[in-house]
């Protein structure tokens, strides 16, 4: 598949790699080709030493991602669907396992698999008109790309059950109040541009420290406090051995901004 025909576009904005779901005619739905493209481009960005953060967004201003491509699903057997659900784990899992922070810029609706894609990300920024929902139980299924597992970890069990069992749809401000998104962009401002400005501390930050902090949080999320503290100590030690830490000390002494090299 040529880059021009790919359902996902890759842009580089300085130290940030931007993945754009580019199927506006299908509300940026997740086809099989789109899943493979996310996996391929995600691996490329994770391996790129110049990239310090990954942003994923959708083309247009109506949909971040409306979920699975139901038109494509109509021609699938039950076993085909099982294979497709497996691709959510293998291909979107590239972003889930990324040592670099991943941020969703929700430029419109994020329904079903689209919200599950956003939940894989470390941070979420929503346009004021964005809407978020996991409507699967109203369609006779359940969220199958991690929604039943990740949503409770973000908003809590009770609110996750409310969203999933009632198929409840949240607007951007409700999602912010629930902690489902971290930020709502101002009216009239591109959510992608706002996101890139907001994450400048990551893009210009110390990549070794960023990765170590993410790993420490993720490793200790469901372990006893004592083990979590030991895991944190191990990750902290990684930063002590970095050139970036010495650069931070020099910059502080010289009263300037540090220039991190990820070394």
UniProtKB/TrEMBL annotation:
A molecular function GO annotation: hydro-lyase activity
GO biological process, any: fatty acid beta-oxidation
Stated name of the protein: Enoyl-CoA hydratase
Keywords, alphabetical: Lyase
Similarity comment text for this entry: Belongs to the enoyl-CoA hydratase/isomerase family.
Keyword Iron-sulfur listed: no
PROSITE patterns for the chain: ENOYL_COA_HYDRATASE (PS00166)
UniProt cross-references to CDD domains, sorted A to Z: crotonase-like (cd06558)
Source superkingdom: Bacteria
Isomerase keyword on record: no
């Amino acid at each position: 598949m040529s880059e021009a025909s790919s359902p996902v576009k890759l842009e580089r904005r300085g130290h940030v790699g931007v993945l754009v779901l580019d199927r506006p005619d299908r509300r940026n739905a997740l086809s099989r080709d789109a899943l493979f493209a996310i996996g391929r481009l995600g691996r490329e960005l994770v391996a790129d030493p110049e990239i310090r953060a990954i942003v994923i967004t959708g083309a247009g201003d109506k949909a971040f991602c409306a979920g699975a491509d139901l038109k494509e699903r109509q021609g699938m057997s039950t076993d085909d669907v099982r294979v497709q659900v497996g691709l959510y784990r293998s291909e979107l899992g590239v972003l889930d396992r990324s040592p670099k922070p991943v941020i969703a810029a929700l430029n419109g609706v994020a329904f079903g698999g689209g919200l599950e894609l956003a939940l894989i990300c470390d941070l979420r920024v929503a346009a004021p008109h964005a809407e978020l929902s996991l409507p699967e139980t109203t369609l006779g299924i359940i969220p199958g790309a991690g929604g039943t597992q990740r949503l409770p970890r973000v908003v809590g069990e009770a609110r996750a059950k409310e969203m999933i069992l009632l198929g409840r749809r949240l607007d951007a401000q409700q999602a912010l109040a629930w902690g489902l998104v971290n930020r709502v962009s101002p009216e009239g401002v591109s959510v992608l541009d706002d996101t890139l400005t907001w994450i400048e501390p990551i893009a210009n930050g110390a990549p070794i420290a960023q990765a170590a902090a993410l790993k420490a949080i993720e490793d200790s999320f469901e372990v006893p406090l004592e083990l979590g503290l030991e895991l944190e100590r191990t990750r902290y030690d990684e930063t002590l051995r970095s050139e970036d830490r010495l650069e931070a000390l020099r910059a502080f002494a010289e009263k300037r901004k540090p220039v991190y090299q990820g070394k």
